[in-house]
Design brief:
Blueprint (H helix, E strand, L loop, with lengths): L1 H25 L6 H11 L11 H7 L3 E5 L9 H10 L2 E3 L5 H4 L9 H12 L3 E8 L7 H5 L5 H15 L6 E6 L16 H6 L3 H12 L4 E6 L7 H19 L6 E4 L2 E3 L7 H12 L4 E10 L7 H19 L5 E7 L8 H4 L21 H12 L4
Parallel strand pairs: 1-2, 1-9, 2-3, 3-4, 4-5, 5-6, 6-8, 7-8, 8-9
Helix pairs in contact: 1-2, 2-13, 3-15, 8-10, 12-13, 13-15
The structure holds (3S,4R)-3-hydroxy-2-oxopiperidin-4-yl beta-D-xylopyranoside.
The site of (3S,4R)-3-hydroxy-2-oxopiperidin-4-yl beta-D-xylopyranoside has 7 residues, from loops.
Length: 386
């Protein structure tokens, strides 16, 4: 059925390709020539996949872990998403283990929901990732008036003991520190203006890793960041700053084990350079760090509304990115930020101006595999073994 549909689409594109492209251009359906070129280039692209085996198995064959964040606080009541996660994923990320979700007041913790996800993953033999212990964002309202330079370290220690402690021995990895670099802030070493930096100084990063290592010595400890994927001066400056941060941490003996490349990709971004990505990953790997693709999705905000066209462009972006990324053998995991288009942060954070539902993930809103799924499957099938 899927193949038949593809063949029909292909015929349509091949037959009407140029005409449709030009027509669409003049009716303003395409925003720019690049997108038209992408469509023309992608129409001959064959996103065929052999067999139907799930992504986790294709990944495992290459020594990789495939997983997803579920992007809903309510997985308990969505059995169809549970089924899809168990089917496709070897790893689950309850990506809401953030301060504002866990700490309703300064002296209480609510870990009930987190516990459910951990049990769900254990029951279904999935690995778990924790996200995230230290971030400038998602801090509870009480934080500002309660935490000060005198008590900040105590708050951080207590948080890590309580949260990482609760799940000690159960987490494959923790995003210990998230998004600590933001070069445009103009601070030394490209550090981001963050409450943690104000409260504890630049050593808050080292402190967070050391504390987590004490509390959960088995977990792989990850520094996670975004905005590093493209061949632009902004991303280049950030890559340099992240690399320097990782170098400093390693040289001072901070227990950091891996780098998390969020990978929120833009469907309309022209400046992807596979060699730049490989070079960056090589540099990270040469510090003795593993690499995880931690929050992969493709933002389709500026892509044409037509679903066939959009899915094709999104699939192309996935395959181009992953085939470059997986060339680096230090990459050990690929994690989507959400599995199904029904549950994605992008509906809220990067909605389309035409109001059409976004389609950034491998499964559609009805948990059916899309062309993006094929693209990821192909990237795994073609990846070198690690
Ligand atoms: C997003 C979640 O998916 C949303 O549900 C939440 O409201 C906001 O945060 N980078 C990160 C993630 O590290 O924590 C963010 O997750 C997406 C961007």
């Amino acid at each position: 059925m899927y193949n038949k549909l593809l063949t029909r689409r292909r015929t349509l594109y091949l037959g009407l390709g140029t005409l449709a492209g030009i027509g669409a251009l003049t009716t303003g359906k395409f925003i720019n020539n690049f997108q038209q070129n992408q469509v023309l280039a992608n129409q001959d692209r064959n996103f065929k996949v052999a067999g139907k085996i799930p992504l986790k198995e294709r990944a495992a064959r290459k020594g990789l872990i495939y997983g997803a964040d579920c992007n809903t606080l309510n997985l308990q009541s969505v059995p169809e998403l549970q089924t899809a996660l168990v089917q496709e994923c070897a790893m689950l990320v309850p990506g809401f283990l953030k301060w504002d979700m866990l700490r309703p007041t300064a002296d209480s913790f609510n870990l009930t929901r987190g516990d459910w996800y951990v049990e769900f993953a254990e029951k279904n033999r999935m690995l778990l990732r924790g996200h995230t212990l230290v971030w400038h964002d998602a801090l509870p309202r009480w934080f500002k008036e309660t935490v000060n330079k005198q008590n900040a370290q105590q708050f951080l220690e207590q948080h890590i003991q309580k949260v990482a402690g609760r799940y000690a021995g159960k987490m494959h990895s923790w995003d210990v520190v998230n998004e600590a670099i933001n070069v445009p802030d103009g601070l030394p070493n490209g550090l981001r203006k963050s409450p943690w930096l104000d409260l504890l100084g630049p050593d808050y990063i080292d402190l967070a890793f050391r504390l987590t290592a004490q509390v959960d010595p088995q977990a792989m400890l990850v520094y996670n960041d975004f905005g590093l994927e493209y061949d632009t001066p902004k991303d280049e400056a950030k890559r340099t700053a992240v690399l320097k941060l990782l170098e400093r941490l390693k040289s001072q003996g901070t227990p950091v084990h891996a780098f998390g490349m969020q990978s929120h990709l833009f469907g309309d971004e022209t400046r992807f350079n596979p060699q730049k990505l490989r070079d960056f990953f090589r540099n990270v790997a040469s510090l003795g760090l593993k690499i995880l693709i931690t929050e992969l999705d493709v933002i389709d905000r500026k892509l044409p509304q037509d679903i066939d066209v959009r899915d094709r462009i999104v699939a192309g972006v996935y395959e181009d990115y992953l085939s470059a990324a997986l060339d680096e053998k230090a990459v050990i995991a690929v994690i989507n930020w959400g599995l199904s288009d029904r549950y994605t942060w992008l509906s809220e954070f990067y909605p389309r101006s035409d109001g059409a539902p976004v389609r950034p993930l491998p499964l559609d809103a009805n948990m059916q595999r899309k062309l993006a799924w094929n693209a990821i499957a192909r990237a795994f099938d073609n990846a070198p073994k690690r």
